[in-house]
Amino acid sequence: MATPINNWAEAGTQLDNLARAIEKDLVPILSFPEGAPYTIAREWACYIDHLGALFSGEVNHSQKRFCIYLDKVMSQVDAGYHDQKDILLNMFRHGTVHEFDPKVLVNLNKQRLGWAVYSTRGRNQNITLEDGRSFQVSHLKITPHPNLTEQYSLWVSTWCLVDDLIKSIDVFKTGMGNPNERIASWNKVALELVKPTPFDFKIP
């Protein structure tokens, strides 16, 4: 849990702890069959939410802080996080956190967008179908469904999600040009996090 800081170096120490937690908790399961996509997507969304709060100072607006972190910090690792931030919010955060599966989205033109995943480290991957057809996909790029009209997939690499999350922490640690603003935002959220939650439990 983040705690209040007196200077930005103290934030760096706590961010290093977060990065180590990612390396211990998420990196090992990337080697599981198919890259443990549900777990990775869910945990990735939770880390983005938490980091977004510390970065932005947004205590109550979870959607806003999620998008701010993608737009301001993750985009410095891969511009695709800026381009797809609203889709990632609605598909990954709302889906994996509340309903287990990432959501399938449909637009006003009745086009459907689902998620698709590959478990290698590269930002590009060749996909081979059962009928022998192959095509290339890229991390955070939308690709037409190979068999269905008006259906599309947002492809993600589980490895890239985790690698980029760790790299984003290094970006965050720089203070993003205004450490004093970052300290104020950090402490606003950290002070809320250390407060106990009111709940009228009973001691037997």
What does this protein look like?
Strands 1-2-6-5 form a four-stranded mixed β-sheet. It has a two-stranded antiparallel sheet with strand order 3-4. It is globular. Helices cover 49% and strands 15% of the residues. With 204 residues, it is α+β, with helices and mostly antiparallel strands. The protein has a domain at 8-101 and 158-193.
Question: What would the principal axes of the Cα set say about the shape?
Answer: globular
Q: Give the strand tally.
A: 6
Largest sheet: 4 strands, mixed
Amount of beta strand: 5-15%
Radius of gyration: 19 Å
Name the strands of the widest sheet in spatial order: 1-2-6-5
Runs in which pLDDT lies below 50 for 5 or more consecutive residues are: none
- Helix fraction bin: 40-55%
Q: Average pLDDT, to the nearest integer?
A: 90
User: What is the CA–CA distance across the termini?
Assistant: 29 Å
Structural class: alpha+beta
* Count, helices: 7
Order of helical and strand elements:
HHHHHEEEEEEHH
Key features of this structure:
alpha+beta; 4-stranded mixed beta sheet; 49% helix
Provide the fold topology.
Elements: H1 8-25, H2 37-56, H3 62-72, H4 80-83, H5 85-99, E1 105-106, E2 112-118, E3 124-128, E4 134-138, E5 141-144, E6 151-157, H6 158-173, H7 179-193
Parallel strand pairs: 2-6
Antiparallel strand pairs: 1-2, 3-4, 5-6
